[in-house]
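Hi P.,

Sorry for the delay on this. The queue was packed all week, but I finally got your sequence through. Input first:
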Amino acid sequence: MDIARDSTGNVNSELEDTTSPLLLSNEALTKFPETFTLAIVLEINLLRQEGEDFERKLQGLDVCSTTIRFLGTIQGFVTVNNFADSLAARSAIEITGYKLKKALY
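Then the structure:
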């Protein structure tokens, strides 16, 4: 959680539920809509484990959720020009688009 604290400049931010969804109450997590609980985690990312722990917590609460880890990816792989046309980036965009379309239509 040092990353969250360092990025917010708030020494106590690591204790706030706005810093990490892992800190939300079980009651709050069970109210998440299905489309919100798509987590895309990257192989090379400091918060990868936190994202996967979040998925496990949701599963433990029987919240319909999905987490996908894209191997060989780094932060920004969807938006960084060198990676934006990669199969991983295109797949992440397609999956996200599908989930949004399903929620909105």
